[in-house]
Design a protein that fits this description.
By secondary structure, the chain is mainly α. The chain has 20 helices and no strands. The longest helix is centred in the first third of the chain and has 53 residues.
């Protein structure tokens, strides 16, 4: 199975993510309406706790596995070793879920949540984690295209099942978990079949038994990479779980549901950017293996502003259209989620940069930097959470979901830019130029999205919540953004010469033109000349 170039792999990942957007939107539009704020909050809280638990148990080993396999793609014993690690994580996660059935443990760690949700959430979290690991395995061996095709087909099929459950009035918390198990299991199996087919074409057998010496060697390699991340993983797990626990304890399941909805909307914005980050991480890992810091610097300089701009394009439109999106997703019972949605819509901006910046330290093995940043984030993040979420009687502002959204966005801004600044110490990369671009792109797109909304509200396109007005606003916003990029390519981190070269390459590849026509008259002349030939 010949490895496709980076551009082709990104294109298929982007197509798969684009196809998953309507799937994701349909799912998140149905769940809040079917479950209501309280049960939706309980579902999200329980699954988030166990997802964070899997992240702690992972301790960066999945990233170590991805980087190692990217460099040593024929080393199938590495895959077998990590499957053993995955089995251990499965047993621990399910065991903790069963412990939560004990009333004392369930009441303490999952307040106001039905105990039976715990083991269901544990299995959901593991299937989500193992699917992500198998997907990254295919990225590491260059089998991205087949992997993304399977993900798209399974997602589209399973969302149809979800719609049928909703229309037949049988979408409950139980049927939801069954639908999720079916989708996640089918996806994971599909990913594994792609992996096996890839190695079979190369004449490599995956069933080779591990020798004791190999197990010891791999355990040492993973320990050396991941043990500095233990502190980071522990602090991240404790902080992220504690803030959701504090929100649940002080404000209840309904506020948990409002914050959950804001998170889901922000994740929809991130889907378009998430396609690129694992592929760039792979290239960074390969470049570091060759001790080529210049290439790493070029990758970071080239892609970080583009990823930020793409994320900002969707996030800023979400900020402007939050009222309509909340009405679409949750209905009238989620009106109180509008402000948290507007704030959390800005989260994907630095989520993309955070993954890219973090991948630099993962690829170079500087995991101690991640540990130290996690310690610092634990202090200022915990202080911000308490200040914004705790009730006034405990010296907090009691802002509920809105406060947690403010904390999440602001803390991420500080942490991600801290990573970028530290990366400049060993990679040729301009931090201040990148920081200036962040503010410039966000300001321009926020103003553009706001003006597009106001113009469509002013003209007779229906009520502000109408779908027609929403679509018209999106088209106008997209058109103006494209004009701005052509006029001022700096807002996307490109130089005018680079943008012109890309446009010329497009016209040459698609239309057979040697250079970009400058006027309508020149386009007509060229068309007539081609027809005359």
């Amino acid at each position: 199975m010949q490895e496709a170039p980076l551009a082709s792999r990104y294109f298929f990942k982007l197509l798969a993510n684009i196809a998953s957007v309507p799937v994701y939107l349909i799912m998140e539009a149905l769940l809040p309406r079917a479950l209501g704020p309280v049960m939706y909050g309980n579902y999200n809280f329980a699954t988030t706790v166990f997802t964070q638990l899997l992240g702690f148990l992972d301790m960066g080993t999945s990233t170590c596995f991805y980087n190692a396999l990217s460099r040593r793609q024929d080393e199938v014993s590495l895959i077998r070793f990590y499957l053993g690690v995955s089995l251990i994580l499965f047993c621990v996660a399910i065991g903790v879920g069963l412990i939560m059935l004990w009333p004392a443990a369930g009441t303490l760690f999952l307040p106001d949540v039905p105990p039976w949700l715990a083991p269901l959430a544990a299995l959901f979290a593991f299937l989500t984690w193992i699917g992500r690991v198998l997907r990254s395995t295919n990225d590491a061996i260059g089998a991205t295209i087949h992997s993304e095709i399977i993900r798209t087909v399974v997602s589209l099929t399973c969302v149809l099942l979800l719609v049928l459950l909703f229309l037949s009035d049988t979408l409950t918390i139980y049927s939801l978990f069954l639908q999720q198990y079916l989708m996640l299991s089918a996806t994971a199996i599909g990913f594994w079949l792609v992996t096996r087919a890839n190695y079979r074409e190369r004449g490599i057998v995956l069933t080779k038994k591990l020798e004791r010496g190999e197990v010891t060697a791999y355990a040492g390699e993973f320990w050396s990479y991941s043990h500095p991340l233990f502190v980071q993983a522990l602090l991240s797990f404790l902080m992220l779980t504690a803030e959701r626990w504090l929100l649940q304890l002080c404000n209840g399941s309904a506020e948990q549901g409002f914050f959950a909805l804001s998170q889901k909307v922000s994740m929809a914005c991130f889907l378009f950017v998430s396609a690129m980050t694992p592929l760039i991480m792979r290239e960074l890992s390969i470049a570091w293996g060759q001790k080529d810091t210049e290439t790493m610097g070029r990758l970071l300089t080239r892609f970080s502003p583009i990823l930020f701009f793409i994320a900002a394009y969707f996030s800023c439109f979400t900020v402007a259209e939050a009222e309509t999106l909340v009405d679409l997703f949750g209905g009238a019972q989620f009106t109180a989620a509008i402000l948290p949605v507007q704030i959390m819509a800005l989260y994907p901006l630095h989520q993309a940069l955070g993954q890219l910046a973090g991948s630099v330290f993962h690829a170079t093995g500087r995991t101690h930097v991640l540990r130290n940043m996690a310690i610092a984030e634990c202090f200022y993040g915990s202080f911000a959470t308490w200040l914004l979420v705790a009730p006034p009687s405990f010296m907090g502002l009691g802002l509920g979901a809105t406060g947690l959204a403010v904390k999440t966005v602001c803390v991420q801004f500080i942490t991600v830019n801290g990573y970028l600044w530290l990366a400049t110490r060993f990679i040729p990369f301009s931090f201040w130029k990148n920081l200036g671009h962040q503010f410039l792109a966000t300001a321009v797109l926020l103003v553009t999205a706001g003006l597009a909304r106001e113009m469509t509200v002013f003209f007779p396109l229906g009520e502000s919540f109408s779908l027609l007005r929403f679509l018209a606003s999106g088209l106008l916003y997209t058109f103006v953004t494209m004009l701005l990029v052509l006029a001022f390519p700096q807002i996307m981190g490109c130089k005018r010469g680079e943008l012109k070269e890309k446009v010329q390459r497009f016209f040459k590849a698609r239309l057979g033109w040697r250079e970009v026509p400058c006027t309508f008259a020149s386009m007509v002349r060229r068309r007539n000349a081609r027809q005359g030939q």
